[in-house]
Model the fold of this input.
Amino acid sequence: MGIHHLFKKGRPVISFEIFPPKQTSTIDTIYDTLDGLYDLKPDFISVTYSAGGKGASDHVTCDIASIIQNKYHITPLAHLTCVNSTKEEILQNLKRLQENQIENILALRGDIRPDVEPKHDFEHASDLTSFIKKYGDFSISGACYPEVHCESNDAVSDILNLRKKVDAGAEHLISQLFFDNNAFYSFLERARIAGISVPIEAGIMPVVNKKQIERMVSLCGASLPQKFVKMINRYDGHPEALRDAGIAYAVNQIVDLIANGVDGIHLYTMNNPYTARKICESIASIRDI
Ligand code: FAD
Done:
């Protein structure tokens, strides 16, 4: 089923993101993650993609998406990046996805890495989106940035670029993680004013240790509200307390988002079924209302 259809059920969609095992592990380790997640009944599970270099997973993303679909009977969303791929390489990926009956693709540009020369067949995610649309019958999702993409000069040009992605065929958007719901609400307002009417899911990452926060903030530049910083400082050095506080913080964000009528919540699970379970248990009675 095309993921955008899931939003017609009149309740917030709840979805998960997982990533392929490190190259040093076998693909089988993903079963531990999926065994811990499937009975939480996510509406879909997305699988990240890494093209070339370290952690390359050209076919692994498709293999895992196929496992999600065939063994766990959950709709998969396969991430696909384009900046380091030629058209030929993207075509091979699309063929593989089609052969495995994977219908949903999260079309991404990917990060420009200082050590890798981009291939220049695709400059932006919108180019990949148009290319996939021409190729076959896929349902396409895209990424969006409540606190503005790090390469954008301003919020207005970022939204206008997002509009290009939607006009090219993205039927659903998933946001970068954020810790301040007001940033998401302002973004949502800008997007709707710009005529972007597709469902937009809020990306939520439960923070379970300080290292993870530092890494995430350096990668995506999410701003940290004072109450979040206070929480981190208070429980630094107490891993269990920090984990529980991080879960509670994510639950508070989700409750507020659902109360404000969000289309969906995309949980960055970090392959950690424990935190996903705690969160889903906490929102069990409100997610279907
Ligand atoms: P784009 O939409 O191309 O945007 C990139 C920049 O270009 C923005 O500043 C935008 O404003 C600008 N822009 C866009 N279109 C145009 C245009 N037509 N003309 C001029 N400027 C334009 N990375 C991975 O490597 N693997 C993953 O699996 C992965 N999954 C992700 C999932 C989510 C939900 C998110 C939010 C990000 C993910 N990323 C992943 C990271 C992503 O690849 C980076 O954030 C990347 O820098 C931008 O990707 P994009 O698809 O948003 O790019």
User: Anything to note?
Assistant: DSSP finds ten helices and eight strands in the chain.
